[in-house]
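call fold(seq) -> tokens
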Amino acid sequence: MPDSVQLDVYMVDDGSTDGTSESVAAQFPQVRIIQADGSLYWNRGMYSAWEIAAKHFCYDYYLWLNDDTELLPNAINALLTLSADCYDEAIIVGATQSTEGDKLTYGGRINKRIAPCNGAAHEVERFNGNVVLVPKAVYNILGNLDYYYRHSKGDIDYGIRARQAGVKIYQCGEVAGVCDAHTTIDGWCNPEYPLKKRWILMHMPNGMPPNEIFHLEKQTNMLQACVHYISTYLHCMFPQLWMRRAIKQ
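ret:
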């Protein structure tokens, strides 16, 4: 990281019980810790941190960073360099790879696939929010994340809003961090669970809440939003049908 860069770190402790806040405060007393009661989840937790940061200070950039993502040594420098190449007027995404380094796990997406990290920057359509640099000029246009979403989809929504506002999104040409993908079947569509449990898990913030999916997709395609709203319920009630289709493919 360039010596001229100064970082202020904001961390949301959303009701953890494992001593996270105490450990961070002891080792990194400069970190600004925001305490919550466990109801925020990812999107509202990110929203809360960003709201406080932007309200009290005028930063040149805002960096989203997931707690399960480990930045590689050159990540911040690469993000800032690409941002400068874009006149600090674009969202800059850093891709992550698996611990083994054999595949990309999260990042900017083109036709739902993660853009390659082949040394060149790629313009992308949407992105995962693991490593994202938002310059001040972009924040002034788009503002914060949408508080409507509790856990996921807020990053996808931000990408949609960016494109609608004419803001470009680019992914760095080199991998920015390490973050393993979640490989297990989501509980809300796991046929090994009874329907009652799947139904409850589907409506959890970190499940697949149909109302939030509909809120996201209606921005770009109302018909698709309606179809997906219905299919989400069907997927929950009859997960075996999707499992069979996946096997055939």
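The chain has a mean pLDDT of 94.
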